[in-house]
Amino acid sequence: MKISVVTASYNYQDYIKEAVQSVLDQTYKDWELIIVDDCSTDNSVEVIKSFKDERIKLFINEKNLGLKETVKRGIENATGEWVVFLESDDILTPDYIEKKVEIAKKYTDVNLIFNDCEFFGDENRVKKVENDLRKTRKVLRNKKYPAKMFYNFYLSNKIFTFSSVMAKRIDLLKINFDTPIDVLLDWWLWIQLSYLGKFYYLPEHLTKWRLHMDSYVFKSIYSSPNQFQMKIYLEIFIRQKKLYILFFILLEQFIWYLQKFERRLKRLIFNKKK
After folding, report:
1. Which of 41, 162, 164, 205 has an alpha carbon within 20 to 30 A of 194's alpha carbon?
2. Measured between alpha carbons, how far is 55 from 154 in angstroms, rounded to an integer?
């Protein structure tokens, strides 16, 4: 089973060497690394070219296309049955691919395999993310896998980072990449994939997720993802014409507004006490 590792590169010259090396260090050897550079203005391309392994394939965009088009180009140029996503500032443990290939071979109805992460880098961000994801980890560990997770992604993204995912390429080619919020591309994709197949979660730290001030997700500013969530679920409803999806959207919207009201009420009470 050939695995394609897809990396979108943009101005991470200080980190991408470690990312590439973590792929070279994999115990599973039947892989290719597809790197698409989105017109980096630093020395990222030179760092990538310094590696002389024929399994590493570099594509350079003629102009800056942004995250979604860069990731999409990587998938389109991949030749593996499965795609591993690796952000250019993250690191994979040596057994990352090997352990996921075992799951892929065992469960043929699974189209996405994801794992827990080790967080490192900026201490304040590490503490915040650890705290924010405590509840998500508990939810994930209480599920039985393989699992249909279509109804688990409406209110929040249950997958920590791109670099924790291996997904079937054939299903990635079926879905829409046109997210209205570029920084939430991963969430947009997982919702669609969750309708097409089952997910499998490995509660092991197979990804080292670097949290730092230059991270794309932290530098981006976006409004509430409520309209984003509704848009993709409505698109799936229109495609599939299943009424239960529409009922689910209406219910989740009600819950979302209820939680929003609850948060505002708590802040109001807290401020009055102060």
Report:
1. 205
2. 38
